[in-house]
Structure formats: C-alpha cells, structure tokens
Hints:
By secondary structure, the chain is α+β, with helices and mostly antiparallel strands.
Amino acid sequence: MKTPPHPYLNATTVILFILYLVLSTLTHLQKSGVITIPEWIAGKFSFASLVIITFLAINLFLNLTVNKIFPSDMQPEEKIFYSKLYVWGLYAIGIAFVFYHLGVSLGNLTLFFGLITTGVAFALRDFILSFFSWVVLLRKKPFRIGDYIRIGEDEGVVKHIGTFYVTLDKTPDLPSDFTKIPNKTFLEKSIMNHGRTEVHERIRIPMKGIPPDISQKIDRLKTMLNELSEKNEYVSVLMDIEDDRLYITIEYLIPFSQRETARSQAVQRAFDVLKNDFWVKS
C-alpha cells in the first residue's frame, strides 16, 4: 500500500533542508579544522545559508497555510488566482528580506526591482500578455474548469487554466490526448462555451455538386437527425461553400457522453440520404 505524502513536506522543502544541512556541516568541519575550504568559497556560505533558510521558511509557511486560507470548497478559478498571488507575494517578501540583509537600502531596492521589471517586461512581453490574459480568464470567467468550449479550430473540456496555457481535452477517455492553448489566444478569438452537459457538434461533408432535389434531401436528413438530439431546435442542415468546394454542414447539440456514437450515426444517416452526391477524393 502506497504511503500518502506528508501534508507539510514536498520536494522543494526536502531539497532546501538537505542543502542547509550540507552547508552547516561544511561550515562546522572547516571551523573544526577537519577540512580546508578556500576563503572565497567559505565567504559565500553565510549568504547561501541566509537564502536557503529564508526560502525554506517561506515554503514551510506556505504548506501550513495555503490550504487553510483557500479552502477546498472554493471555486477552482478563484482558488487558482488568489493562491498564486499569495505565493508570489510571500516569495517577493523573501527576496526583499535577503537584499535588505545584504545592505541594500529600500530606495536602491525599489530602483533595482523597477529596472528588473522593465527589462523583463520588454524581453518577455508575450509571456506577460499571457499572464494578464490568465488574470482576465480567472476574473471574468468566460468559461470554467469542466466546461466544453470551442475556440478557433480547437475544442474540448477545460481541464486546467494555467498561468500561460489552458488545457483542453477533446477525448477524456484518452488520458494523454489534450491540447494546450496560449492564454492570449482567448483575447484574440471568439469563445463558444457549450457548458458542462452538452456539446455543439459540427460535421462537414464534401459534395460533388448540388442535386436537383437538394431541398427534399435536406429536409429528410434533418428529420432523421432530430432523432439523435433532444433539442431539435439546434439541429441544422445547410449547404455551404469554402475554397470553391461545396459542403453539406450538419450541426446539433448532444450530451458529451453520447458524442462519438451520435457522430457515427449522423454520418451514416447523411450517407443514406446523400450517398450518390458525396465527393470522395480518389
């Protein structure tokens, strides 16, 4: 039986603690005369110890408090947003604390962070745009985790809203099949949100031409497709053209769990009605 991880320990905490033990041991052995360490290296030990202790304390504090401040019943999007700000804020305080103990004044520290921020903003503007897009997605909530959405040519269930990417899963039955979309894309393209229960299915079938009885065939196909979807008002069958090619476009709403089966049945019924008019590339 696998032992569950300790709630207050993670890989970062363990690594920092081991590094601190190593530095403390080396410092003690040098002072005892057991080993000799070059002065220019030994002089860095105190600074390294300060950095490690600071971030070890922050990491332990985060492990102790983050789940208590942001409870499990909180909306996932809200929890992601506020917990990230909380973590980044504590690490920013830790960095400022280290610089302060190095003798950097508050004015110089402010100037330093200002210059660093400006340089980083210029060099990583695409990443920063994705970050602010992430803030917009979490605050304005055009979709939530678990919604089925379509953006451009990509679609799927929203599995994760990350700092830089949104993860969509079009086929939940395949665990390794997913799509990552940069956050900034959601500010540039229209988003179609189908909610959590039903998805909008769209099938395009290439045609050889327009048959003389196309209106009757479209009505017949639509009647057959109404049997697939409970919401018949969303079932549509229409002629379309793109890149000098004729298509029959079929659209309908279907529960996500029935998506694959319904698609196969829709294609089969379209073939039964339009089999002599299909265009198949030879």
